[in-house]
Structures are given as structure tokens and as C-alpha cells.
Design goal:
Elements lengths: L1 H6 L12 H39 L6 H11 L18
Length: about 90
């Protein structure tokens, strides 16, 4: 085709510059593949977001200082005091 173009004197007519039916099919197939990939990626991102939301809602909250002090008081220790290593740990109620 390039040889025909060179022999014709370098002038292009309308039929030699079109992509034709095959070009349309290839472009349509690529567009369809991109659409499926974007659809799949969107679904995966939504599932990841949902799973992360569920994980953070189900996770127990870490005790803060006030909760730790209340636990010490229930155990009979002074707030902020270290437990006595010679005594067994208190039993849970």
C-alpha cells in the first residue's frame, strides 16, 4: 500500500485514508474491553470500601485512659499503679 501511494505521486484519495470496517470493529472491541474493565474495577472498589467499613465497625474500640483507670479501681489498685507481681491477677466478674 505504501508503494502504491509512492507510485501515485504522493497524493492521497479519500479511500486510502479511511480505516474501514476492520478499524471500526477493533475500536469497538477496545472500547468494550475498557468498559468491562472499568465496571469490574468499580465493583471491586465498592466491595473493598464495604469490607473496610464493616471491619472498622466490628472492631472493638481500644480502651482509653479512663477505662483503664476504672478497671484498676475495680481490681482494687490505685489508679495508675503497677500491679503487684507477687499476687495473682484478679478474676474477671
Amino acid at each position: 500500500m505504501i508503494a502504491e501511494f509512492a507510485l501515485a505521486g504522493g497524493e492521497a484519495d479519500g479511500s486510502s485514508a479511511s480505516s474501514g470496517f476492520l478499524g471500526f470493529v477493533v475500536f469497538f472491541a477496545l472500547a468494550l474491553a475498557v468498559w468491562f474493565l472499568v465496571r469490574n474495577m468499580t465493583g471491586r472498589l465498592r466491595r473493598m470500601n464495604y469490607a473496610e467499613t464493616q471491619r472498622t465497625q466490628d472492631a472493638p474500640a481500644e480502651p482509653d485512659d479512663a477505662t483503664a483507670a476504672e478497671a484498676d479501681e475495680r481490681a482494687g489498685a490505685a489508679p495508675g499503679a503497677e500491679p503487684d507481681p507477687d499476687q495473682p491477677p484478679p478474676e474477671a466478674p
